[in-house]
Amino acid sequence: MTVAARETPPGECPQCWQHAYDRRVHRHLKPRQDCPQCVDHMVNGCPNVVPKKPSKWW
Q1: Distance between CA 27 and CA 58 in Å, rounded?
Q2: How far is CA 10 from the centre of its chain?
Q3: What is the spatial distance between Cα 29 and Cα 39, in angstroms, rounded to a whole number?
Q4: Other residues' Cβ atoms within 10 Å of the Cβ of residue 15
């Protein structure tokens, strides 16, 4: 896995974030071809979510 082009916000998966905002990730795919990594994430969930900072509001 490569590092996201922009810093991943807290509570977001770095892979999902990169695949959503970096066009280079899917450049090798043919039209209407599914990305195997995205499909795996949709089926199995996101195992590498960046932890959120604890809320200080309460």
Answers
A1: 45
A2: 12
A3: 13
A4: 21
